């Protein structure tokens, strides 16, 4: 479904973002997928986000059963720095659209994956799932923050030929979270490099997973 280009005013300045409506009945609450882009897509041109990965998949799809939002940060910024703005945008979207707040998925690529790990760990009660593509877990996350992620189903994707990331590091975080009772899946694309977002986000199985998750009732918002 074609995406709109919007902007949300925050205390740190405007946060431009792509947005797409869910295809289902307008009065029926639907999930939301909040996507955080990678480092090379920072800037002031939202069209850059539409060139590949999940934004392009959404833009080129006739209809999807979820709302979609993809904010864009400025060159030199990180998602950790804009954490409060991403959450504020999420709150605004939930307040202004029939979004099911118990079915919000946080997804990322590269720099955006690092941001997704951080934001999900800081606000574990807000998300029904996490999709981490080609990105590492920030070393600044405390052990208690990682423990908070055990209630969130997580899908991790990494290219076997990715020179930027270590498969050992990915397996370590999987083992750590599973040891705490977390639901974590790690998928390695053997021939994939760092830029696997097109293949990952266009996969029908992942698309089905995005709409099949619901926040665990044991998690407090």
Automatic annotation (TrEMBL):
Keywords: Hydrolase, Signal
GO terms for MF: hydrolase activity
Pfam families according to UniProt: Abhydrolase_2
InterPro entries listed in its UniProt record: AB_hydrolase_fold, Plant_Biomass_Hydrol_Est, PLipase/COase/thioEstase
SUPFAM superfamilies: alpha/beta-Hydrolases
All copies of domain Phospholipase/carboxylesterase/thioesterase, residue ranges: 87-196
PANTHER family: BLL1128 PROTEIN (PTHR43037:SF1), UNNAMED PRODUCT-RELATED (PTHR43037)
Protein name: Dienelactone hydrolase family protein
Species name: Amazonocrinis nigriterrae CENA67
Upper taxonomic lineage: Bacteria, Bacillati, Cyanobacteriota, Cyanophyceae, Nostocales
């Amino acid at each position: 479904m074609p995406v709109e280009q919007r902007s949300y005013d925050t205390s740190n300045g405007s946060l431009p973002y792509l947005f797409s409506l869910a295809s289902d009945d307008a009065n029926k609450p639907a999930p939301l997928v909040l996507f955080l882009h990678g480092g090379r897509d920072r800037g002031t041109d939202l069209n850059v986000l539409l060139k590949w990965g999940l934004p392009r998949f959404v833009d080129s799809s006739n209809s999807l059963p979820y709302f979609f939002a993809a904010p864009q940060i400025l060159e030199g910024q990180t998602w950790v720095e804009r954490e409060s703005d991403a959450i504020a945008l999420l709150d605004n979207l939930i307040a202004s659209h029939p979004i099911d707040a118990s079915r919000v998925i946080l997804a990322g690529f590269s720099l955006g994956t690092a941001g997704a790990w951080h934001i999900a760990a800081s606000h574990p009660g807000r998300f029904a799932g996490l999709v981490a593509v080609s990105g590492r877990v920030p070393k600044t996350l405390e052990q208690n923050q990682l423990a908070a992620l055990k209630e969130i189903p997580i899908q991790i994707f990494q290219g076997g030929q990715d020179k930027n990331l270590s498969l050992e590091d990915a397996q370590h975080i999987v083992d750590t979270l599973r040891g705490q009772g977390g639901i974590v899946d790690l998928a390695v694309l053997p021939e994939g490099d760092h830029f696997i977002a097109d293949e990952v986000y266009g996969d029908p199985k992942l698309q089905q997973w995005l709409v099949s998750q619901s926040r665990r009732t044991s998690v407090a918002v």
